[in-house]
Design a protein that fits this description.
Elements (H helix, E strand, L loop, with lengths): L19 E5 L4 H12 L3 E6 L2 H12 L8 E5 L5 H7 L5 E4 L14 H29 L2 E6 L12 H21 L4 E8 L5 H14 L3 H9 L11 H12 L10 E4 L7
Parallel strand pairs: 1-2, 1-4, 2-3, 4-5, 5-6, 6-7
Helix pairs in contact: 1-8, 3-4, 4-5, 6-7
Bound molecules: nicotinamide-adenine-dinucleotide.
The site of nicotinamide-adenine-dinucleotide has 27 residues, from helix 1 and helix 6.
Length: about 270
């Protein structure tokens, strides 16, 4: 048997040198991990968040890692400013729509203004960011859109009306972007985690305890991980690794999917 002349593609390390990536919610758990992972692969990262201090901490963290000084640039922005969001995405090769927020309340007690904000940040802003990014992506016939959805983009849970609605909408937006982008070399996919060890989840424990009438220490096992076959939280780095994979050459035929990182939740 003759030896192959080129190494198998799966042996190639992810190389995003020369690419610009915009990550929203980059001051938070998953966004931060994505920003650092894409920077480690060689991308210049535009880190977007409304938390300017958190972005500064991220830039400092990157500067402390070998080879990443200057690789992450802070771009403080509140994504409810939709025009600014669209402008911020111009010229990016990779877009990671990650920013999000959660409120756990029954529908009859859910404040309408919060519902509106959740839909704005988690669905309308991604639409505007994609809209801002596409002209450059289409022009160069290459682009990667990764939308951080959730198992709640595929399944509902009680008391999360806005979040579940936004994530289901994001799944639809992502699939539509995949269909439109295909002929232009642009892929669009969702990564859909179960519960990840981040501040967003830690903040939920008290709310969930009140909504379900349980002591806080039982919320993790009895509520959050009830439907997960694997009884642990996922780490942000594991989510970032899936995002990086979808940006690599190995994933060029993957588009329009939702990749559940859910410990078997959607196997039910
Ligand atoms: P996080 O709260 O740690 O980070 C979210 C970030 O979004 C924060 O830095 C926050 O400042 C930013 N943000 C919120 N509103 C914003 C706005 N108006 N403008 C700009 N930035 C804004 O949360 P996380 O757990 O890292 O979540 C990141 C994404 O992952 C979210 O979309 C979330 O829905 C999704 N997700 C999280 C989990 C989980 O278990 N943590 C599970 C599935 C999906």
């Amino acid at each position: 048997m003759t030896a192959p002349t080129t190494p198998p593609r799966h042996a190639a390390a992810l190389d995003l040198g020369g690419r610009t990536a915009l990550v929203t919610g980059a001051a938070g758990g998953i966004g931060r991990a994505c920003a650092l992972r894409l920077a480690a692969a060689g991308a210049k990262v535009r880190a977007v968040d409304r938390d300017a201090a958190g972005l500064d901490a991220l830039v400092g963290q990157a500067a402390g890692l070998a080879g990443l000084t200057g690789a992450v640039e802070a771009h403080p922005l509140d994504l409810t400013d939709l025009d600014a969001a669209e402008q911020a995405a111009a010229g990016t090769d990779i877009l990671v729509n990650n920013a999000g927020l959660q409120l756990v309340r029954p529908i009859e007690a859910f404040p309408p203004d919060v519902f509106h904000t959740v839909l704005t940040v988690m669905l309308e802003a991604p639409f505007r960011l994609i809209r801002g990014a596409l002209p450059h992506m289409y022009g160069q016939r290459w682009g990667r859109i990764v939308n951080i959805s959730s198992v709640h983009g595929l399944r509902a849970s009680a008391y999360k009306s806005a979040y579940v609605a936004a994530k289901h909408g994001l799944e639809g937006l992502s699939k539509t972007a995949a269909l439109e982008g295909a002929e232009h070399g642009v892929t669009s996919n969702c990564v859909s985690p179960g519960y990840v060890r981040t501040p967003l989840v830690e903040r939920q424990l008290a709310d969930q305890a009140a909504a379900h009438g349980l002591p806080e220490e039982r919320v993790l096992a009895d509520v959050l991980l009830q439907d997960s076959a694997l009884k642990r939280l996922i780490e942000p780095d594991e989510v970032a690794e899936a995002v990086a994979y979808l940006c690599g050459a190995q994933a060029s035929f993957i588009t329009g999917i939702s990749l559940p990182l859910d410990g078997g939740w959607t196997a039910h």
